User: Fold this.
Amino acid sequence: MQRIRIAGARLWLAAALLAGGGAAAQEQAPAPAPVPAETPAATIQVGGVTLTACQPDFGGFCGQISRPLDSAGTLPGTVAIGFEFYPHRDAGQPAEGVVLAQEGGPGYSSTGTREGYLRLFEPLRGRRDVLLVDKRGTGLSDPIQCQALQEAGEFVPAALAACARQLGPAAWMYGTAPAADDVAAVLDALQIGEVDYYGDSYGTWFGQVFAQRHPDRLRTIVLDSAYPTIGLSPWFETEWATARDGFELACRRSPSCRALGGRSLDRIERLVAALRAKPGKAEAPDGDGNTVGIAVDAPTLFLTMNSAGGSPTFYRDLDAAARAYLDAQDPAPLHRLMAEAASWNTPGSDPAAFSTALYVAVVCSDYPQLFRADASRSERRRQLVRATAQKQAIERDVYAPFTIAEVDTSPHKWERRDLCLDWPAPPKGVVPGTAADPKAPFPNVPTLVLSGDIDSVTSPIEGLETARLFPDATYVPVRNLTHITAITDQAIFVPPKGADATGCVAPIVLNFVRSGGDAGDTSCTQRIRPIRTVPAFAVKAADVAPAVATAGNAGTEADLRLAAAAAETAGDVLARYFVNSGGSGVGLRGGTFTFEAFDAGFAFTLDQARWAEDLAVSGTIRWDQSTGDVTAELTLAGAATGTLALAWNDRDTDAVARITGTIDGRTVAAERIAP
Assistant:
């Protein structure tokens, strides 16, 4: 008998949400530096495999086994399966178990996220080993390289067709089922019995397939940001509904947006209409400060909104950017968001970090399609056109306020329904879409399913549907978090050296593994602070709402506006952390910033950063992620000169920033909602 425990308060969901979903995700980038481990021995023996020391900062050992490319023996060749093994720290005691962590995409390597996984499970590593296996075609496991496709940055039909020709029938040998069997073979080689499984994003899909195929290898299962292998819809309806309604939720939960009255979605729908009526082109800085060209139109706005599940920056900025564009004829905030979304959804050129070809191979092999894979290419296209026309006739508002055509022409779109049109036909005996067997049971293994309630990459409805597949599942919705909750929790709430894990979701995962299936008290998931949206963008500092004077203030109203503009500049730079991959960027209207890790968080350096065009802000911001404390020492130039100190705690639900200092010689003491 199936039992699903839904932990925490009732999850808010729009009544219109339908079944479906599943996607690739851009993973959370920069994390603090690792805590070095003791220098390991040169080699160790684990089971029947001799492992060689690697990743010395983490105390890891690397190994590799060889697997047949085609287990049925029809196609020749082998594939190397690479992995990293991290022995438990208490060498004088036997291991209490092994944590097996699997990364998502599909296309990302598990070893590429070693830092996040090792930090997440650090409190268990005294008596538990950690194993990271790269799925075939990724990372250390012979990553698939289709050069034109990898470097295109888009799913260009010619590049897809070239990759299909390059791989031929082997294109069908990289699905989830053979990859799951590879992982089981690694466990056999290392003589490991049961594992505690943790998978995020596509790692949750992989975990479901692994659970069906190798149920006896699992002690517990944690599926973070899950979507179901059974009943997946090629239209991904619930993902878009979560993104769309997530903007309304973010506004409703943020004091500055809530105070505007009305609905955020009404303002966004006005923006959609304006972009339809007058599309254009622009150049704007992306998250790393690179100037890129963008189309300023409804399809690009869909991309921007649908990217919010991967980064809270889009939820934070869009409402105010829409108002600036519509009401103040200030396009800069919207153009920047669109540029950030475009770059955020572009894979890098290194297939070992992310293999675009592996992504396509898995999608075409495992995900449901709107055409038959064994049909001719021309017939596939006819079937896709017919299916789209049917959807248009029956449910034309499935992506409202966008049309199906606008969604289908969205740039950098990962969930393209035409992605596999030019993929080779499956070899004899290969049946597409059967990674999981809808008739086979899922094991009665304690399973924890986590979903951020504003995650549009894998929606909360998908998480609940995944939990329903398992006989003994606990479903935990997490308020105010986007994609991948436990590692995001660690990225935002990092413990200091030697300390136990902090935050909310990570301790739930640790308790579930320690106890063998008890999530414990999950009430903290309803107390994670909301996203604080931008009150309003302003071209000039004089147009910013003033901070509120406190005891000792001698500044003028103009000074209080400048103080508020300085706070917005600091908050704007901090928000770029979530869309940045290189540690440097540019201000909204000029200037630069850089950031680097320290033991407990990040330090930002601003050089003439301009959020308002007439106020240049320099100085430093320290974000202590172990406590949530943010402190800033800023110097102002341009509209005024002065120095300001800012402080707030970023974990507080309605955090208030304290501002003190001088502007043009006058003492300023004020406060305002934290940016």
